[in-house]
Specification:
CATH architecture of the largest domain: 3-Layer(aba) Sandwich
Strand content: 15-25%
CATH superfamily of the largest domain: Alpha/Beta hydrolase fold, catalytic domain
Length: 455
């Protein structure tokens, strides 16, 4: 008797054969490196056509409209040297199973989670372009534990940042172009329709090769493919609602994000968009490229992605300063502790170590968050320190005792110094304060007298 599992396998195999039969003589398109295999993966009520190759930490590559997963061949060849590269065709597109619904990006994110589960990829870097950006954002937001680093290339994300302004751009009329009549207008004219995107959104249309155009035009002319493409755009309104609600309820992405824009397309706006939704955003603008970064400037684009994915967190070595840049959003989500080296140790004060280690030789930076009505008695440190008031009202003075000494009220943006060995004191009144301190360790704290209790 045939088992239910066997029947399911036969059904999936039949679906894969039916999909491939729709392309009896496809134009030669981009070729993945030798060693990549094809898998038809059942996920979230559909089946995705997935290319898998290489070995190492997983990386998922998500394509956009006007191309398929085939766009990633230059990057796949590079990353497969030390990554397991996973390249699906999105729901209903390319060689994935035809689909009539489910194009909300939050749902398509579940498609990708299913692919990752099937391939035992617990966590992965994710690289995306165009509509792939929207799926990738939904994936990173709703499954942040599954995404280590995120690369988004040259397309907005519905509901994020200046989305309403983006919609007013007349070049993006196709966002509202769809429905049965529109599909009839385009049927048999897929190449004409797609050429408009490849030409208008390129810095130089000649950089989008003819063989690649022919390949994608054939894929999009297959039954159901243009329908899937139009439905991707039709879901934008719901995507915007979903993304705004998620951002309001859960906050910004915490993983590192690389925002890449083509110089003749989104350029630096890509990073501006993502700063509204992510705490740690790096910006790269690729010269000589429009929207089609992998076709127009594959070498420069691959190099930018490679550098980002292979970068390690900067840490000081032998007391030397290492590169580091933190946004305010990043510092806000860093772990907080109580007393530590270089702090007063007063109860109730929280410390955030931003950089280095105050107990060791080398530069460090830390932040103290001081509650209202907290007093730090006169003390000194062995190293010279600089301090900046970030927020609140901070009362600071020099001397061995606060009694009768001059006190200076300091607000946000104020700067003061703590010279080595010079006693100083500080306190808050009715409002809390946040202060950042930098120095060169090792440091310590030596009180002139016993610290009074907080009040």
């Amino acid at each position: 008797m045939t088992s239910s599992r066997s029947l399911r396998r036969l059904a999936l195999a039949g679906a894969a054969v039916a999909t491939l039969a729709a392309f009896p003589a496809r134009a030669a398109g981009p070729q993945f490196p030798a060693g990549f295999r094809i898998q038809e993966i059942a996920t979230n009520g559909t089946t995705l056509h997935v290319r898998v190759g290489g070995a190492g930490p997983p990386v998922v590559l998500l394509h956009g409209y006007g191309d398929t997963g085939d766009m990633w061949t230059p990057l796949a060849a590079d990353l497969a040297k030390d990554h397991t590269v996973i390249v699906p065709d999105l729901r209903g597109m390319g060689l994935s199973a035809p689909a009539a619904s489910g194009f909300e990006k939050a749902n398509e994110a579940e498609d990708i989670v299913g692919v990752m589960d099937a391939l035992k990829a617990a966590r992965a870097d994710v690289v995306a372009h165009d509509i792939g950006n929207m799926v990738a954002y939904a994936l990173a937001a709703r499954h942040s534990d599954r995404v280590t680093k995120l690369v988004l290339m040259d397309a907005p994300v519905p509901g994020i940042g200046p989305w309403e302004e983006v919609l007013k751009n007349p070049l993006l009329w196709h966002f509202r172009f769809g429905g049965p009549d529109m599909e009839r207008l385009v049927a048999g004219r897929e190449r004409i329709y797609l050429d408009r995107f490849w030409n208008d959104f390129s810095a130089d249309p000649r950089r989008f090769p003819e063989a690649t155009r022919a390949h994608y035009a054939e894929l999009y002319a297959a039954p159901g493919r243009m329908h899937a493409g139009f439905r991707q755009f039709a879901a934008f309104d719901q995507d915007a609602v979903d993304n705004r609600a998620w951002l309001a309820g859960h906050g910004k992405l915490k993983m590192p994000v690389l925002a890449i824009g083509g110089a003749a397309s989104f350029g630096p706006m890509m990073a501006l968009v993502m700063q509204s939704a992510a705490a740690d955003v790096q910006e790269r603008v690729i010269a000589g490229s429009g929207h089609w970064l992998m076709e127009e400037q594959p070498v420069a684009t691959t190099a930018a992605i490679h550098e980002f994915l292979h970068a390690s967190p900067a840490t000081p070595v032998d007391g030397r300063l290492a590169p580091a840049s933190l946004t305010l959003d990043q510092t806000e989500v860093m772990s907080r502790a109580g007393a530590g080296t270089g702090t007063s140790g007063v109860s109730g004060i929280q410390t955030v170590l931003l950089y280095g280690d105050p107990a060791k030789p080398g530069p460090y930076a830390l932040e103290i968050r001081v509650p209202p009505n907290t007093r730090i008695a006169a003390h000194s440190h062995r190293d010279d320190r600089f301090a900046t008031v970030i927020s609140g009202a901070w009362y600071f003075g020099y001397g061995a005792t606060a009694d009768g000494a001059a006190v200076k009220p300091l607000g946000a943006g104020a700067l003061y110094t703590e010279p080595a060995g010079a006693p100083h004191f500080a306190f808050t009144r009715d409002a809390p304060a946040v202060v950042r301190l930098t120095g060169v360790g090792p440091t310590d704290t030596a009180f002139v007298a016993a610290a009074p209790a907080s009040h």
